[in-house]
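User:
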Amino acid sequence: MRAWAELLRLPALFTVPGDVLAGASAAGGRPGPRTLLAIGASLCLYEAGMALNDWADLDEDAVERPHRPLPSGRVRPEAALVAASVCTTAGLALAARAGRPALAVAIPLAAAVWAYDLGLKRTPAGPPAMAAARGLDLLLGAAATRPAGSGVRHAAPSAALLAGHTLAVTAVSRRETTGGAPLVPLAALATAGTLTLMLGSRPGTRGSSGTLSPSSAAGDLLRTGIATGYAMTAARPYLHAALNPSPALTQRAVGGGIRATIPLQAALCARSGAPATALLTAVLAPLAARFARKVSIT
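Assistant: Predicted structure:
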């Protein structure tokens, strides 16, 4: 059980529901049964990517991370590939239940996951591919919540912000085992600062009719507080890795960037005028931190 928990990086699962919830909030809809189906689809596709990642990296991990489940022999490579295929199928099936618009987003999302793990990861297209996958995951929530299709258009700005954060984290992760690239975590630090400023702006809230209305003072305070939490979670490990780009500090920077995804998602919900959804998403952060003490998030 522990080997599979390590393979699937179970603590990282807590960073997934917020994608869909942020998409639903940006679409101006209220989460419902279709949203829950989209969350299930998102979780399945994420875990497919985790299992496929280690299957594709078996030879590399045998040298750099021999303690990982596959090179150590605790999980058979064939089992990891089967798990990735089953999770992908289940994810697409759940997306189909959420409606055709959701399936239309889930198919390219699944393709992005497989393309990244099997070929793009070691190329310059790797970080953009991972960023696209996260952005599509947010749009999945929008498509499921407002099946008519208008939700995807409304959620595009939030998807772009989430993709920008993911691009920075993925770029840092490429040096996770070697270190030695101070400019990369420095660029990630600058990205986190820029996103924090954008999250603190006042775009107004989008109601069920799709129109914008002024933000409330309480909403402003909530959005600013969560955005500050995002900055604090991401900035410190990025700064440490920029000052000393050792493999250990670079790995901590990657872990910090992954954990910062949750307050980012919560801030996006608050920015879209969904305070209850923002608070629900924010609650996932301490749960992720608790489980990360037992199983590595990277």
